[in-house]
């Protein structure tokens, strides 16, 4: 039996407050790993063209589906760099609204629920303005040398992030059926 993290892992029992996130890319990495949708394996998509590093652990939420035909992306803040394919309980605190080459590509922002250095954060408004600018800068710059345009529109609160999460779960069920 094959196990595909996108389809076979659970998004958790406490949605929309916390979710299970599957990490693809550890914080401070230049490797762009992606889940291979067919096999469920982690694939090296590319090494980032620019001299920038992921500012947070990056991954997706299982059993979600978005307009870009991928699962919903998530950034998980923690004091540690998490291993790829790590399953982590993440508390939703906000969302970064983004356009990647003109298409919506939202990124939920969360904190690791089991990391006491960040678990007290409940909303994106509690993060430092400088860190928000670091996130914006990374996502606006990381594809420039590939001649691709990314536009970070705005950062929104936990309430909207949870609505986006629920919508992506509903879209998954519509596309693939309930498990």
TrEMBL record:
Subcellular localization, as worded in the UniProt entry: Cytoplasm
Pfam families: Pyrophosphatase
Cofactor: Mg(2+)
CDD domains in the cross-refs: pyrophosphatase
Keywords of the record: Cytoplasm, Hydrolase, Magnesium, Metal-binding
Domain of life, source organism: Bacteria
EC number: 3.6.1.1
Enzyme class of the recorded protein, top EC level: hydrolase
Catalytic activity: diphosphate + H2O = 2 phosphate + H(+)
InterPro entries membership: Pyrophosphatase (IPR008162), Pyrophosphatase_sf (IPR036649)
Homology family: Belongs to the PPase family.
Protein name: Inorganic pyrophosphatase
Gene that produces this protein: ppa
């Amino acid at each position: 039996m094959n196990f595909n993290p996108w389809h076979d892992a659970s998004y958790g029992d406490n949605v929309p407050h916390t979710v299970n996130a599957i990490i693809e890319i550890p914080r401070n990495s230049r490797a762009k790993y992606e889940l291979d949708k067919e096999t469920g394996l982690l694939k090296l998509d590319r090494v980032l063209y620019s001299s920038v590093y992921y500012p947070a652990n990056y991954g997706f939420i299982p059993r979600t589906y978005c307009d870009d035909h991928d699962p919903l992306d998530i950034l998980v803040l923690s004091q540690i760099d998490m291993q790829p394919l790590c399953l982590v309980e993440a508390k939703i605190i906000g969302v970064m609204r983004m356009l990647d080459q003109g298409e919506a590509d939202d990124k939920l922002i969360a904190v690791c629920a089991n990391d006491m250095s960040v678990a007290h954060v409940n909303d994106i408004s509690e993060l430092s303005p400088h860190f928000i600018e670091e996130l914006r800068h990374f996502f606006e710059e990381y594809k420039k040398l590939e001649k691709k345009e990314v536009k970070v529109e705005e950062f929104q609160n936990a309430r909207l992030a949870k609505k986006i999460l629920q919508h992506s779960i509903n879209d998954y069920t519509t596309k693939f059926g309930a498990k």
